[in-house]
Amino acid sequence: MEVDTASDNTSLDDKTEDYCENPTRDALTEGIMSLLKPTVDQLDERVRATRISQIELRQQIDSLTDELLKINESLHCPLELDAYVTKLVNAKRKVVVVSNILQKTQERLNKIHEAVERQKNKQKSLLDRSSMYHTSTIKPESDETFPASSSTPDRT
């Protein structure tokens, strides 16, 4: 009947005592910890170093700000230049606007000039065609209709 006893040992209640003292589980836990511990330690050290660097950087920024304030106070100019700088910026903006307007106007003038040249060439070609047509149609008719016109004496 020891077979029945072996089947009873598989229940969860009977294994709770062995669960805490399982040598396989302990070895597995130690193996995982030995794999993860260096990475966690390295990450922790880098985070600590980053925080120290940030504190040092903040201190350097604060000292630089103090130095810049001292320089600004020592070089304080009796003239207020901000108004002049604003005027210069506004003047520059106006110059850019006028330059853009002039550029657009130049482009329009170039297009108009091109259109005029095209129209001029078109009219010239139409006049050439019509004169050729007119000359070819009138000349034979004038010879047939008025054959003596070339031999008529001048009335001057």
Explain what this protein looks like in three dimensions:
With 156 residues, the protein is mainly α. The chain folds into 2 domains: 22-76; 79-133. Helix content is 85%, strand content 0%. The longest helix is centred in the last third of the chain and has 64 residues, at 82-145. The N and C termini lie far apart (162 Å).
Number of separate domains: 2
Shape: elongated
Helix count, per DSSP?
Answer: 4
Overall radius of gyration: 52 Å
Let me know the average pLDDT.
Answer: 76
Please outline the major beta sheet. Answer: none
GO molecular function: SNARE binding
Keywords: Coiled coil
Pfam families: Snapin_Pallidin
Protein name: Biogenesis of lysosome-related organelles complex 1 subunit 7
